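Consider the following input, taken from an annotated entry for L-histidine N(Alpha)-methyltransferase (Hymenobacter nitidus).
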Amino acid sequence: MSGSPLPAVASSDLARHVAQGLRRTPKTLSSMYFYDDAGSQLFQQIMALPEYYPTRTEFGLLTRHQAAISQALRPSNLAEPFFLLELGAGDGLKTKILLRHLLDTGASFTYVPVDISAAAIDGLVVSLHQELPELRVEPQVSDYATALTRMAARPGRKAVLFLGSNIGNFLPADRREFLRKLAQPLTPDDRLLIGFDLQKDPRQIRAAYDDAQGVTAAFNLNLLTRLNRELGADFDLTSWQHYTDYDPLSGAVRSYLVSTREQRVRIDALDETVAFDAWEVIHTENSYKFTRHIIQQAATEAGLEVAHFFTDEHDYFADVVLAP
Ligand code: AVJ
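Applying the prediction step yields:
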């Protein structure tokens, strides 16, 4: 033993994150930690919910504009090889539209799906081998930053996909830094395709994060189950509830876990007991919604041009091609 009072597990990323996050005011945990295997499965269920419009809207958008989007991402010389990197690939259902189209047009590329869930990546690789056996795949289980650093070190043209409005999880300052880091290693022929959920009827947005079946609540609460399992915590799930709201001024959906009574929670891996007041919250997620103006501004700040702006028929969602 090193003499540290903390058990070895406390040095994990999750343990460090929880120790810091629960010391803050307000207490905060990152939505990145939703995606253990159970969380990834719950997110699959969210994507199929009647209230959760983003996935099916972006699916329709990609189907409708697949030819133009594929053309905007690949080199004009079809023989020229390139990497198609996808951050947060998940089940790849939407991406398969583009993969199929690119293969059909004879493009020469390697698909590099990146996800923090090993189970999600495993499932994706199996389905790709079955459905698109001729596709070259280099799967990667890692966070975004690691994937970007690795990709930047490899020569060759790149198209980077960041779909599903995953970018909405970043706070504005973090988004600026992320886009700058994403843009910085790109060469003039590289492209980004980023999905942005657009601002719309506030009630429609709010309903998407507070579904009638309670799947989103289960997804949020699963974070506590994860802490119980992985950090030896004793969160009593009957004393917590999911709460979410959309603020049209900031464009943010904010999601919380609410402590419904005064309580103390033991976290073995941190050798700590955390006190919660009645109705105190843990802020667990931001899901920002965008306007064309904000997207244009974000691109400019990162030194990028908006090359194409694709939307669905209702203007619910945008897939935007960005170029250095
Ligand atoms: C995967 C980040 C796009 O913010 O809409 C869905 C996650 N959270 N319902 C989103 C989520 C609650 C989702 N993203």
